[in-house]
Amino acid sequence: MSETKAPIQAPNEVQSAVQTVVKVIRAQQQFVRSGATRPVEFRLRQLERLKAAIARYETRILEALQQDLRKPELEGYSTEVGYAYDSIGYVMKRLKQWVKPERVRTPLTHVGSSSYIYREPYGSALIIGPFNYPFMLVIDPLIGAIAAGNAAIVKPSEYTPHVSGVIAEMLGEYFDPGYIQVMEGGQEVTSALIHAPLDFIFFTGSIQVGKIVMAAAAEHLVPVVLELGGKSPCIVDHEADLDLAAQRIVWGKFLNTGQTCVAPDYVLVHESVKAELIAKMKAQITAFYGEDPQQSPDYGRIVNERHWNRLMGLVDSSKVAVGGTGEREDLYLAPTIMENVSWEDQVMQEEIFGPILPVLDYQVLDTALRNIGERPKPLALYLFTSNSRTERKVMESVSFGGGCINDTIMHLVSPYLPFGGVGSSGMGAYHGRYSFETFSHRKSVLKKSTRVNLSFIYPPYTAGKLKLIRRFMK
């Protein structure tokens, strides 16, 4: 997830902010320690309350998304509001089963005993959200935090002030700050939060800031989940359905104006079908957004001028096949396809996180896979092919967070699949039950029998006891 910010430090001037944050954290930790969040009935009521809050504020949320990102209502509902409804419903139907102590197998060396895993809340969890899906990417982790019995501090992105304001008002109206607190602001607030003695941090954003968050968390040994990003490849084989590939690649790339952490960052296509694929993608852009996407109500805008400037700097006009134009005052950047791109070009040196799609070609799949493997592990990978051997080869050869075969983005939507990165694209995963697990500490408990006592493990040690232990442990 590429949300580039200047490095966050912990200078003396933020110490007062840290003190304020610590007071909130202490109050939340005390609330969790009181046992108030433990009953599953309490958690279900809070999830129902959250759903009611979203329903009441739905119109304002969608309006705020339009103001901050020019996000179309359908996109805003399906990827943010509606997604939250579905996530809450899924968790509520299953939470009673998830919170039960889980009995697991016990080895023969503990004969007469039983083994259990108890899931307990960490305490006060910090959720830091990004600008690209500014509502969903704080609410979805919050659902997991509530389900697991935590209190939470929510830090929305300052880059989307309208959405941030609505979130603050909504959660402030429906929840006590000793349970759920929203903290708005810029780098000073974020710095104060990540340097505070929290119990858990869930961060979605850029690799650069993820490193800073992790370093700050180390001060108090706070566990972290980092949902980051990277350059997610999209491989198109010569045996792919090119019409389908063009439609699904264009949709996945230009959804939310390319500001999606799992968007195809670049296309790696077999040279024999490259020209045809580019022509079909060009036609698909027109089919989606018309001859002038700037006039389309279905095409959004870049979040701010700084990001617009960064993106325009990645466009090489000599390699533009489609688009390449923009208007700073409108924060508009046309859906852009660049061809004849090499691995050394500037557009291939960082995650794009915008509506620019470089196209590279390959002759031999092994070479393409080696090129991908020599770079940081991506958050997502997409493959378009009708060949099952190619499919198996790619899936077994490349390490990535998650992905799709013959589609883009959609693996993100399944609550049955964990979503998260690997290596520099992140650590930890969530969605569905994985959200509950992520925000839960798994406490291992062995319940020993009082009727069976293995006295041979106690001193004094003898040759006979050693012989018996060797029988059991080999």
From TrEMBL:
Record: active site: E227, C261
Organism: Paenibacillus mellifer
GO molecular function, one term: aldehyde dehydrogenase (NAD+) activity
CDD domains xrefs: ALDH_YwdH-P39616 (cd07136)
PROSITE patterns given in the database record: ALDEHYDE_DEHYDR_CYS, ALDEHYDE_DEHYDR_GLU
Domain Aldehyde dehydrogenase: 20-445
Coiled-coil intervals: 40-67
Record-linked Pfam families: Aldedh
Name this protein carries in UniProt: Aldehyde dehydrogenase
